[in-house]
Known about the structure:
The structure holds 2 protein chains of 2 kinds. Chain A is α+β, with helices and mostly antiparallel strands. Helix content of chain A is about 30%, strand content about 20%. Chain A has one domain (about 5-200): 3-Layer(aba) Sandwich (Peroxisomal Thiolase, Chain A, domain 1), CATH 3.40.47.10.
Amino acid sequence: MIEAFLAGVGILGPGLPDWPAARRVLARVEPWRAAPPAEPRPESLPPNERRRGARTARWAIGVAEEALRGSGVAAGEAAAVFASSSGDGETLAQICEALAQPAPEMSPTRFHNSVHNAACGYWSIAAGCSRPAVALCAHDSSFGAALIEAAAQLAGGERAVLLAAYDLPYPAPLDAARPLGQPLAVALLLCGEERGRTLARLRLESASPAQAPAAAPVEPAAFAANPAGRALPLLARVARGEAAVVRVDLPGGGALAVTARP
Amino acid sequence: MKPLAVTAFSIVSPLGRGRAATLEALRARRGGLRPNDFADAPLETWIGRVDGLEVAPLDGELAHYDCRNNRLAALAFEEDGFGAVVARARERYGASRVAVLLGTTTSGIAETERAWRERQPDGSLPRWYRYRETHNLFSLADFVRRRARLAGPATTISTACSSSAKVFAAAGRLIEAGFADAAVVGGVDTLCRMTLHGFRSLELLARGPCRPCDAERDGLSIGEAAGFALLERDAAPGSGLALLGYGESSDAYHMSSPHPEGAGAAMAMRAALDRAGVRPREVDYINLHGTGTPANDRAEDAAVHAVFGDAVPCSSTKGWTGHTLGAAGIVEAVVALLCLEHGLLPGSLNLRRVDPALRSRIALETEARALRRVLSNSFGFGGSNCSLLFGTA
């Protein structure tokens, strides 16, 4: 059992332009409307990296910046856990197209943008952060995989862990092989001790599928096919300021029971 | 940290199938690199290839996971009796208490490369294409957990060339935090167009076999490999091999070039020593990341020298295996474990003249020597650094 303080949230998706707005939608104060958000232009990224970085990196860094803003935690202080099922689809499609040519010529920038840890590599540059950073993938359960890794990092002595989960839809023709619904990025800043701001206190325990509470549906449903959407049931409880136990599925068949208290 | 027992490990690499073949190749200074004969990417370079993958399709209930990467995973999982020891761990701890944490950079992307070339007239991908079971990075961890019939947390870690080193750190944390009692760790990466053409675009491919630490080194040789290790919570003192410490850091410097003074690399090595409570001079051998690119070897040398001076012999074994990318961490962890087990200090292969700018103590000849602690370095794009310290517990 691990205890953590949720010190910040960042979010970006259609109709969820930032946490204050998403909070009202998730708390059902306002209805969700599918308006595309402004593309993030992360201020912390040096101009060269902002130009070279892929769209997923800009989204992930955008929500990471939002989660840290006003939290009392410095950007250079938090270990990073970045989770994505799909990496950067635009980069992948461009590379596949190049490799299908009779004499393939690949762009070196696209090649380094294709690594799964590109977004967290750009983030560490943007944040000037030398703390450990990990990028992982567990298909539909990538958020759960990131949450248990973040919890284990806090248990191991990290003072703050920045979790970012993001997936943007693949371009054609890959989108047919892996439909991802609406684009979404979320970031959770988790701390081992209470810092300047606490949005919720969390208790994370592993639970067998039989013991864990039933999984809450992902709402808005437009994000149900997006692996980052698995964070929304927990964030909805935080938005409503309710005490609740939320189930987060882990890859492999298990689950985390997450108790959230305001 | 409390040492974590390494109770089984296995490897398939360009040096052959299994620990004995690997040890023999290291002792005999027999390298596994050859002129590139990978028909899918006929570039002028040398590669480390595993023979026989083309004719070893997966069958049975997991046949739909068939791709070059999972074929190699299946071979290594059954090699060296690894699968049988995992089955005993499953009985002992329960399937839900054994985690599966594996590293890869490209998983089964070769299937997507092929599907793209075989697109239908309307642009769609061919009907035979299976994304989830091949291309997706989780395919590897999912395939292995199903094959091993494990139900603990399962994840693929993909941090470029540090991937299958970082799985040891993640497994150590999960076990320490009480989320698992044991973990299957390791990694697999296989030849594909993307990595060969990608490293060529960065002008990082050596023309001949790679020559880490050589004054005239001109780049890396891509290899493919798979390896696994089983980590268990209860390492009875004196019971054998153990993970003593791990250290991770981020360069926060550049996406594909290392920090010139190796600042992040030094931080990762120091963190591994601190976690183990071991002083630099108590390390007997350092297995370098040592890719053979001018920039990597220079930066790593600066980092090693900053932490160890010239007191500890070090070498890169990539002259034998090539750079197996996401599998490099596990391949070199297996080398470290074999060296501890059999009293071997590997020298350098293909090295004619040590770069005079390097200040660490580069081991040239392979020696028989009892070792108690071995450090293994793995660094990747995105400035991802990981150092693992192994020893006898």
